[in-house]
Amino acid sequence: MKRVLREIEDIRLDQVHGASELALKALQVLGSAALGSKARTAREFVEEINSYAHLLRSARPAMVAITNCVRCFEQFMKKTLAHCCDIEEARSGVLTAVERVTDAVVSARYRSIAHAAELIGDGAAVMTCSFSSTVIETFERAKEQGKIFKVSCLESSYGNHKYGELMAARLEQSGTAVEVMPDREIDDMLTGIDMVLIGSDVILLDGSVVNGYPSLSAARAAARAPFPVPVYCIGDWTKLHPSSQPPVYDPGLDLIPSAFIRGIVTENGIVAPSGLSIYLHGLSC
C-alpha cells in the first residue's frame, strides 16, 4: 500500500518530532494499514502487517522507542492471532494490539511526566536542551500545578535546525517563558540553575543515555560547576535498550555516560542509573 509506505518513509526522514511522538505515529501506521488492507485471506493480511512492522523497526534503528513499541505490538498480535483463520477477526486483533500498546505507551508517558513535574519546585530554575515533547509536557504539567519556575534552554543548533528554539516556541504557546542561550554559553548559563532536565532517545542498561546535542556538553558542564548541578533524564520503558552497548545512533545525538546522570525519571518513579536492571525485570513488554 503506497500510502503506508509513504508514512513509514515520513517517520524515517522526520528530524523534528521526538522519539515518543514517532513511536506513537508508528503504531498509528500499523492501525491504518490494518484498516486499509486489501488482503483476501487472514494469512495474507498477517504477512502484510508483519512486513510493515519490519519496515518500521528498520526505518529508525537508533530510535529504540519505535523498535520497542513495534516489538510489543508484534507480541500482542502473535498471541491474539495464534489460531485465527478469519480475515476480519485478524483485522480486529491487530487493531486491538495497536490500541493496547498505545494505551501502555500513553500511560507510561503520563506517569513519567507526572514524576518529573514533581521534581520541579516552586521558584526553581531548570536548564534543558535539544527537543523533547516529554520535557515540554513536564513543564506544562508543573505550570498547571501552579508552580512558578524559570526555564533556560540551550539553542541546540545542529544541521539546519535550532532545536532549543523549537522547544521554546512550543512552550511559549502554553504561556511558559523560556530563555534561549547559545550553546557556547553553557557554563555561564548554569549560574543559578537548580537542575538540568532532558529527554532521552535511548536509555542503556548501565544508565547511560542517548539524547540530542548538546546534552553531553550540558551534563559535563553541570558536573564541573562550582556547585555541581544534578542532571535528570525522563524516559519510560519504550526508551530502554536491554544492553550497555548503544545501538548505532543518528548524527546529532550524544551519549551521556551514567556518571553524569543523577536519576532517570520513569513511569515507576526516579531510578538511579545503577538500578535499571531491576527496573527492566519488572517490565511486562
UniProtKB/TrEMBL annotation:
Instruction: Tell me the keywords, alphabetical order.
Output: Initiation factor, Protein biosynthesis
**A matching Pfam family:** IF-2B
Please list the GO terms describing molecular function: translation initiation factor activity
Report the domain of life of the source organism.
Bacteria
* InterPro entries linked: eIF2B_alpha/beta/delta, IF-2B-related, IF_2B-like_C, M1Pi_N, NagB/RpiA_transferase-like
Signal: present as a keyword of the record?
Answer: no
Q: Which family does it belong to?
A: Belongs to the eIF-2B alpha/beta/delta subunits family.
UniProt-recorded name of the protein: Initiation factor 2B related protein
